[in-house]
DNA sequence: ATGGCCTTTATCAAAGGA
């Protein structure tokens, strides 16, 4: 099972890239953020033509999240119960037996901004809600644009970013508190290239100079982490003409013991048949 | 050097993103 997240920075602009990306990567689930579309304008039929069902929660101009999937999603939810928020930043549901939560954490603007306080409130509400979700779903994935670089190695220049929004202590502490509920940062389950990032500013030739941050994440419950066989950042998509400023992140699941044995068995049988005269 | 770019909006300048 392949699950991915991508902040597209306007689905209207990026729709051709999204359709191309689906064809190329064949994910089971793709979560989108910053669709910036009201629900009545969501391109349901174009995405259906590519073989994907959709759930979405959008608004005019800002925010907006969506979940594209091969199989239908059940138990669909939008927003967090008990946290009234006109900004459309969260949705999810159960795909196969995996509960998927797609999030677009507030940016925060600046550490002295009222929007920063909103970001911290939003993250506290997320933590408490996820605590409850974990008690109900052993297979839970929380993915999206967290707008937080968790560690020094997730920032191209940690001295420069010290204390700044996206890397401030309070944001990083909030991220750790979510992990402490029992989530694993899938990207760090594997050896990764040095200076791996998911976002690069459009300005300053930041992408060419790899001046980025790793702020898009895929967090897995322990049970899913045990099945995870890969997590990669799709940097190639950031190189396209007229790109989003974020690159997609992809996890591969299904590495349970049974799955591994099954795939090892089929490889062996292929090898045997290939050796036959 | 405190900007640079991109997207949106009852555009043509300003806000927001990160």
Explained architecture:
This protein has one domain (2-266): Deoxyribonuclease I, Chain A. The protein is built from seven helices and 14 strands. The chain has helices spanning 11-25, 44-49, 114-136, 158-161, 169-180, 222-225, 257-275, and strands spanning 2-7, 29-33, 53-57, 65-69, 73-78, 90-95, 98-104, 140-145, 183-185, 199-200, 212-213, 216-221, 230-233, 249-252. The strands form three sheets. Strands 3-4-2-1-14-13 form a six-stranded mixed sheet. It has a six-stranded mixed sheet with strand order 5-6-7-8-12-9. Helix 3 (114-136) runs parallel beside helix 5. It binds one DNA strand of 18 nucleotides through residues 9-10, 12-13, 34, 36, 60-62, 107-109, 115, 147, 165-166, 199, 201-206, 213, 215, 242, 245-246. Its cofactor is Mg(2+); Mn(2+). The active site is at residues 104, 145, 246. One of its GO terms (biological process) is DNA repair. Belongs to the DNA repair enzymes AP/ExoA family.
């Amino acid at each position: 099972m392949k699950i991915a997240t991508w902040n597209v920075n306007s689905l209207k602009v990026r729709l051709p890239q999204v359709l191309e990306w689906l064809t190329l990567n064949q994910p089971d689930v793709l979560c989108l953020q910053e669709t910036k579309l009201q629900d009545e304008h969501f391109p349901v039929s174009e995405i259906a033509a590519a073989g994907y069902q959709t759930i979405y929660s959008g608004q005019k101009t800002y925010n907006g999240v969506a979940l594209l999937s091969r199989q239908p999603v059940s138990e669909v939810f939008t927003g967090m119960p008990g946290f009234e928020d006109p900004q459309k930043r969260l949705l999810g549901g159960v795909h196969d037996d995996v509960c998927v939560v797609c999030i677009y954490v507030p940016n925060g603007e600046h550490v002295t901004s009222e929007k920063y306080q909103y970001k911290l409130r939003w993250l506290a509400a997320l933590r408490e809600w996820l605590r409850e979700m974990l008690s109900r779903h052993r297979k839970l994935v929380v993915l999206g644009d967290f707008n937080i670089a968790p560690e020094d190695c997730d920032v191209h220049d940690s001295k420069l970013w010290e204390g700044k929004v996206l890397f401030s202590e309070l944001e990083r502490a909030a991220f750790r508190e979510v992990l402490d509920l029992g989530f694993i940062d899938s990207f760090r389950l594997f050896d990764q290239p040095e200076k791996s990032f998911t976002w690069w500013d459009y300005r300053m030739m930041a992408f060419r100079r790899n001046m980025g941050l790793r702020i898009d994440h895929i967090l897995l419950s322990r049970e899913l982490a045990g099945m995870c066989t890969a997590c990669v950042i799709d940097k190639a998509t950031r190189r396209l003409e007229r790109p989003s400023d974020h690159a997609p992140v992809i996890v591969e699941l299904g590495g349970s013991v049974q799955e591994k044995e099954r795939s090892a068995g089929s490889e062996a049988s292929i090898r045997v048949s290939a050796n036959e005269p």
